[in-house]
Each structure stands twice: as C-alpha cells, then as structure tokens.
From TrEMBL:
Residue span, Exocyst complex component Sec10-like alpha-helical bundle domain: 216-475, 503-830
Stored InterPro entries: Sec10-like, Sec10_HB, Sec10_N
Record key words, sorted: Coiled coil, Exocytosis, Transport
Listed name of the protein: Exocyst complex component Sec10
Organism: Sphagnum jensenii
Amino acid sequence: MPEGEIGIRVSKSGASKNSSVVGDLPPLDLENFKGEFSFDDFFKDLAADALPLFQDDNPKSSDNGQGTFPNGDLQENGVKGGGKLVGVPFVEAEALLPVCRDTRKELVELCYQVDARLETLKEDVEDYDVKHETKFIELEKGVERLFESFSRLDSRISGVGQTAARIGDHLQNADAQRQVASQTIDLIKYLMEFNGSPGDLMELSSLFSDDARVAEAAAVAQKLRLIAEEGIGSLGAGMGQIKSSSNASPGLEVAVSNLQDYCNELENRLLSRFDVASQKRELSTMAECAKILSQFNRGMSAMHRYVASRPMFMDLEIMNMDARTVRGVDTVQGAPPNLMKGLSTLYKEIIETVRKEAATVAAVFPSPDAVMAILVQRVLEQRVVAVLDKLLPKPSLTSPPPMEEGGYQQYLRTLAGAYEKTQELAKELHGLGCGDLDVEGLAESLFSSHREDYPEIEQASLSQLFQHKIAELKSGVAQPADAAFLPPTARANSRNGSMFAYATISVTVVGEFVHWNEEAVARCNLLTSQAAPLATNVRAVFLCLLDQVSLYTTEGLERAKDALNEAAQQRNLYSIGSTVSRRVAAAAATAAEAAAAAGERSVRGFMVAVQRATSNVALVQQHFVNTVARLLLPVDGAHAACCEEMATAMANAEGAALKGLQMCIDTIMAEVERLLAAEQKATDFKPSEDGNPPDHRPTNACTKVTAYLEHMLEAVYGALEGLNKQAFMTELGNRLYKALLVHWQRFTFSASGGLRLKRDVSEYAEFVRSFKAPAVDEKFELLGTLVNVFIVAPESLPTLVDGSLKQARAEAVRFIELREDYKSAKIASRFSSLAH
C-alpha cells in the first residue's frame, strides 16, 4: 500500500471470525421498530458482535494529537508541509459487509410484511366504514321514529291535560254551584225569617245577633235586601201585565221592611261603636267598623259622621281663633298686608290639620279619597267661607267707604290677596288626595258673589282715588315730587293752599294714575279667567285711566293757557298812545317790562306743561303696550277699538296744547314787537352825515330780539320734539318774518342805513337757520335780497326788481318807497309800471 493512503487490513483469521458472528445474529422483528427508534443504537447493536472493540464509545486520544482506531492502529491528524491526510485501513469492513447485507434483506422482508399488514388494515378499515355507515343510517331512522313517538306522546299528554282541565273546570263550577246553591238555601231561609211578622226581629238566626259576625251579617243583609227589592220589582211588572192580583202572593214587602229596619239598627250600632273608637283613637276598631259600614250606602254615613265630628267644625273657640289669627289680636282693622299675613298663617294651620287628618283617614277608611273629598269640601265651605265673610264685607256702590278706611281700594286689595291665597290653599289640599273633587273650582266658587260686581267696584275705586287725589292737590295737602319745577308764583300760591289753581301738570301724579291702573289690570287678570270677559274688564279699566289722564292733562293745559291770557291782558292794559308825557311813558315802559316778564314766565310754564303732558301720554302708551295690549289681542277688534279710544281721549288735550302753543307764539311775538319798537331808532337806518365811518354791527334792536328769542327757545327745545317742534318753529319764523316787514316799513332808509339793515337781515337769517325750517330759510334769504333795494343806485333798481326780486315785486315796491331819495331821484317815475 502506498505510503500516505488510508487502508484496512483484514486477516484471514479475522474474516473467519466475522463470518461466524454474522451467522449468529438474531433475526429482526417489527417490534424492534415500535416506539422511539434510534439508528445509532440499532447500528451499535448490529455491529456489537462483529466489532467487539466498537463497544468503547469514547476512545482516548494520545498526547501527540493522534487518534486510535478500534484495532489499535494510530491515526494521524495531518501532515506537515501540505502532505495528504492518511490513516490506517478499516480492516473490519469485510466483517461488517455480510452483516449489512443480511440486515438489508431482513429489512426488505420487513417492509414487505409492513405493506401486507397495511393492505390488510386498509381492507379492514373499509369494511368497518361500510358497516359503520350502515349502522349510522339505521340509527338515524331509529331517532326519527323516536321523535315521532315523542310527538305522539306529547300530543296525547296535551290532550289528557286539556281533558283534566275541563274536568277540573267542571268540578270547580260544580263546587261553585254547590256553594251558590248552599248560600241560596241559606239566603232563602234568612229571607223567610225576615218575611215573617212586620217589625218582628226576635226570631232571627244567631248570625244576625252575634257581634263577632257583624261583617257577615251586614253582607247577608245587603244581599237579602237586593233580592227582596228585585223580587218586588219583578212581581210588580208581572202584575202590570196580567192586570189582575186576585191570586197573587203576599210578596216580599214585609221582608224588605224588616231588612231595612235591621240594616238601620245595625248601621246605628256600628256608628256608635265607630264614634266610641274615634274618641279613644282606636284606629283598628275604627277601620273594622268603616269596612263594614262601607256596605251601607258605600259607607257615606261613616264618612260624614267622621268629618262632622272634627273639632274644627264643632269648636266655637277654633272658629273665633280663625278670625283673630287673620286680623290680629291688637288691631281692629288691619292693613291688607297684615291681613294677608294672618290669612297665610291660618291657611298653613288648616293645611297642617288636614294633613294629620289625611293620615288617620288613610289608616281607617277603605276609600280614603272619598273621605278626603268630603273633608276638604267641608273645610272650604264652612271654615274658609266663615273667614272670608268676616274678611271681605262687600261694599256698596251707592255709599262708598271713606278713604280714611282705605276706600274701595282696600277691599279690592284684600279680595285679590284672599283669592290668591285661597287658590294656593286649594292646590295644597288637592295634593293631599281628594279623589275627583275639583278643589280649585270649589275654591273659585267661594268668590262668585264678589266677582259679580267686581268690574263696577274696580271702576268706582279708580274714580274714588282720582277724586281724592284731585281734592288733595286742590287743598295743597299732597304736593307732587316735581313741584320744585313750578314757576315761582305757582310755588308761592301752593304754600297758601291754592296748589291746584296754579300748579302745572305733574308727571308724578299721572304716574300714580298709571300705577293704580296697573294694579287694577293685574286684579282683572287674576279674578277673570275667560279671555272675552277679561278683555272687557281690562278695556273698561283702561278707559278710566284715559279719562283721568285726559281730564287732568287738559285742565293743566287750560290753567297754563289762563296764565298766557293773563299775561296778554296785562300787556294790553299798559298800552299807551304816542302823545303822552315823559313821566307816563316811563311808568308805562316799566309796566310793559313787568308784563313782558309775566309773559315769559307764562310761556315757560306752558312749555313745561306741554313737556309733562307729552311725558304723561308716553306713560299711558307704555302702560298700554306693556300691560293692556296682550290681554286685548285674543278678542277680535278689542285692540283696535282701544287704540281708537285712546286717540279720542287725548284729542281734547292735544287741542288745548295746540291753542296754547299758538298763544305762546303770540306772547313771544308781542315781546319781539315791543323790543323792536323800544330799541329801534330812526338813526339806525338813516345815520347823520358827520364824517364818521359807517357802523357795520347789528342794531341794538336786532341784538336784543335775537337774544330774547334764543333765551325763549331754550324752553321750546326742551318741551317739543319731532313734528310738533318743526311746526312750532316754522310758524314762529313766519311770524317773525311778517313782523320785521311791518316794523321796517316805519322807517326811511339811506344807502348806509340800507347796509346796516342788510347786516340785521343777515343776523336774523343766521339765527333762524337754527329753526331747521326750510320754508323760513327761503323767506329770509329772499329778505336779504330784498333789502338790496336800499343799497343799489336808482338806475339799477329796475334790473334788480325784474331779476332776483321778480317773485317779491310787491314787497320790493313798498321797500323802494322807503328810500331816502325816493322823491329826489324821481324813482316813482321809473317804476310807474311797478306801482300798478
């Protein structure tokens, strides 16, 4: 063998030895391959006999890194210098080869055996599946037959159950009929006992005399009464058809009479027992008696007996205490707030008492709601009515109660408060349980007599309050809060007891009127439930306010007009002619100034009156919108009719205001004319030719007139607004325009005087622009052009008149005649056509 190759050396002795080993190997069995199989273990067992040394699984390595084969030969791990890896030949291979071949044959045979077994097993499984499927089909058919059997069994059981139920019903009906027959026999026996001698109740069965069986006796007696009464009715109907009673039986009249007597006696006995138990507060005995008595007329006798025995309906001290609680112990006649406080206290006591009674009623009576309905009705109709009668004595419309005692208003306030508190009481009582009793309707019916005359009394109250207030103002007892704004003479006279004669209109007073009306409307809404009567009552109440405000405002404006008339008379009284002495003229001037001061005060007073009248109308309108209108809208036409009536009521005041404003303009213009006459000098428009430069300032008359007007218009601006202000300023501007034209026609104008007049006209035009009246502005603009006739040269006048003054030709001609040079310049001849 070449050096460096690996080989196996096999000796002959070794070969023979291995052959004997192969012949001794045990045969392979399939059992060896069951469970967990390890090829290493199998090969080890296979080669154990052929290779004894192979049993050493962990040969040790030498220190030089060489391995050792099982035959003792060494194995080198490698060769240095890149030589080939060589080893000792595997000499036992020849011994293992026959073993492997035999083993392979045996394994092939085992495979054949396994395949044969698998084929047999497959055939067995197929046979088993066929048998199992056949058996499963047979089981399904069996289950179906079983379900059919169960269904038939269930149907049979159901039929048996129904039959049993019918049998049970028949048995139950038979038993019930037996019991009814037995009861009928007993009832007939009892009925025969009661149908004996009239009034004879001594021979009755023990049932009707045994106190322990009172309930049963009461039930039997009621049944017997029903049977007897029905029997009498049937007999009467039959006798009416036959129309012959010769062979008729005596009937059951005796039984009915005896039964009635017995029931009355039994009921009285139970009521006596109930009363004794009630006094002792034995609720169980009371409940037992009430339950039995419920069979007699639904127990109404016990209910009424219980309610009537309550202390609140029998004790006079409690009734007197109610009146003292409402009015108070120390007051003979309290004010409405105190009365309402006392009434609230009383109603709380009543509610608490009824609540306690409700607990007792619920524990005693089988129908507590019916008892509570009787109790609550008795409380309202007796206890509450007694209090209301003392609290609300109905006043007479022919003899009104004095205002010192509160007048109609106190009665109405007490009525509204009592109605409201009583409705609250009714709601509380209804919450305690009263069955079908209309507690709120019953409480409302308590005031039916008061509500019949309520609208007339409400209107009478408003009239009484108005008259009383006017009387106070006349006497000066009640001064309005805005009296500080009166003119000095009015305030002085008010201190002398003549307030009504001089006082201007007061917003505070009208505010009181509106407050009374608001209170009255609220009462109408409270005491009137239906929409149509409510609208009628509210409308009537609001018309009272309209009449009051209209009358008060109109009279106030008339009084302010009287002051204007007095001022006018005072002006006319001191009018003098031109030919008087200087002393008389001075006295007249002083008196005229005093008259002018009086006129100014009267104008300011009237403007204050107009301002407050406007405020009062606004108060009424606001009250109508906020309070009245919504109550009128549900009724067709009521709102529109009320608006029309409001406009009609204010028409008188409006007429007085318009006349007074016209008088104010007259008074203002009278003072303007006085100032013009007193302050305007002839030299203003025809100055002397002294060589001094012309004066371009407004004349003293113009300055004073504009200052006076500005002073007076302060009051006008504060009193008027809107269209009223515009109309007033337009009329005042037109009157001023006309007054100035008339005034200037008294003077002669030079050229320089014309310039001075043009300055005045510019001042007036600038002043009237504050009027914000376009028509007045146009007139004063035309006036500024018109005064140019005093400035231009005579030869330019025709061009001026035919041009810008064409629309005011007549005024221009009159002004031209006032020129200083009218005659000297022969202007008349140039305007001969204009003169015509």
